[in-house]
Structure prediction request, 77 residues.
Amino acid sequence: MAMKNKQKHIPLQKTIWCKIRYWQLLHDWTDDELAMYLNCSTRTLQNYDHDARGLTLKMVDTFLCINDLTLDDLLAA
Prediction:
């Protein structure tokens, strides 16, 4: 019999998005700068704050490459 996990699951996209926003805070970037790094609009950033399901691997990969990071680096931040 499988045990039910009582903890709420946080989707991977939301976890990555929170880490990207944290990285932005650490580096004192504006939303315009972050949008440039992700190749999206500032409105898209606001949408991801409410629901990060639209965050694509391409956007994450672009962000990581521009900032010379690995996914492990980002998630460890």
